[in-house]
Amino acid sequence: MTNEQLKELLSAKFPELSEWDESYGLLSVRVPAAKNLELLQFLYNDPAMQFQFLTDLTGIHYPDRAGEELCVVYHLHNLVANIRIRVKVYVPVAAPDVYSATPVFSGANWMERETYDFFGINFIGHPNLTRILNVDEMDYFPMRKEYPMEDPTRTDKDDEMFGRG
Amino acid sequence: MGRPVQYNENSKVILADIPEGYSGEGFMATKFDQVIGLARANSLWPLPFATSCCGIEFMATMGANYDLARFGSERMGFTPRQCDMLLVAGTIAKKMAPILRQVYLQMAEPRWVIAIGACASSGGIFDSYPVLQGIDQVIPVDVYVPGCPPRPEGILDGVLKLQDIVKHESLRRRHSEQYKGLLSEYGIQ
Ligand code: SF4
User: Fold this and answer.
1) I need a surface site. Which of A25, B49, B100, B101 has the fewest CB within 10 A?
2) Which domain holds residue A78?
3) Best to test chain B binding among A146, A150, A157, A160 (most B CBs inside 10 Å)
4) Does the residue B78 lie in any domain?
5) How many domains does chain A have?
């Protein structure tokens, strides 16, 4: 199956898909946040699709895209026909709610925890949405592009060790 | 008929000096401080806590070329209960800090800590949110070994420095107000 056929099949089923892109031969598509689970389920179950392997799931922060600052990216792989597809969901930073992919892919569990940990995406329906890599006490989402490179207010840096004291 | 005895006259082995004291024929009197210090210093049991690149250098230090065993640290003890020298080699993430602290707490007194490399000493190049900016924020450190990573010679030098500390430490030091004050600064009883 080529990217064109895939695109045709998908847009016939989901007319709300947009921002089709084919950079480096990898088909990618944007889906509204409300529809992401439905699309993933279809990609997984449909006999023509069979995207049953979740290669990666991560987040991106675009501080300049007002109203859709945060993006969640899914990389799916059809291991039978060896085709890949990339699915993107955009949500505003003020209400970063995305349906969890865990009902379809159990492997999404830790990846979503990581994405929550670093970008603060709220995955609705996730069985245990807690921090996974950072300390539990952390009260910010470090990979968001909101912080100065060098934070002068930090207190844990021992300047004497660096001759800056 | 006597058997030939082989004796290497070029041996560079240096024996530890006899501690100063009063000796006569068949006896010697000296202070516990010195004898025990000597024994402790030359039989330190290392507990490696190696997390990253510095850990690799530390492995070389243990290997045949550099051979930490020459200095009395014969084998790694991978249990804090039996060890008295904690060697922290590598980047310690903030999430790792409570674990490192627990390992330290599980060691029996007397115990010493060497921070190997820039990361363990100060956070090193990782001037960022997830990395502990020096293990001395959670446990007291006796010797800092600089370098990113330090060469095995550097680590050996650190161990020798520590032996020096151990040798000259008073047996009562661990009961001193100063030492207790230091530990209570870290919230350790
Ligand atoms: S000090 Fe350098 S070599 Fe050692 S752990 Fe840190 S980055 Fe690695």
Assistant:
1) A25
2) 3-144
3) A157
4) yes
5) 1
The residues, ordered by sequence, that sit 6+ positions from A94 with a Cβ below 8 Å of its Cβ are none
Q: What CATH number did the domain enclosing A55 receive?
A: 3.30.460.80
pLDDT averaged per 10 residues in sequence order, chain A, 165 residues: 89 91 92 92 91 94 92 94 94 93 93 94 93 89 83 66 61
CA neighbor of A21 nearest in space, from A80, A65, A73? A73
Residue B155 beta carbon below 6 angstroms from any ligand 1 atom:
no
Ligand 1 atom closest to residue B90's alpha carbon, by position in its atom list: 5
CA–centroid distance, residue B128 to ligand 1 (Å): 14
Asked if A158 and B127 come within 8 Å (Cβ–Cβ), the reply is: no
Closest-CA residue, ligand 1 atom 6, reads: B119
Residue A37 located in a structural domain: yes
pLDDT for B14-64, tens place per residue?
Answer: 777 788 888 889 888 988 888 888 888 888 999 999 998 999 999 999 888
Distance CA A96, CA A91 (A): 5
Indicate whether B3 belongs to any domain: no
Report the number of distinct structural domains present in chain B: 1
User: Using an 8 Å Cβ cutoff, are B61 and B155 in contact?
Assistant: yes
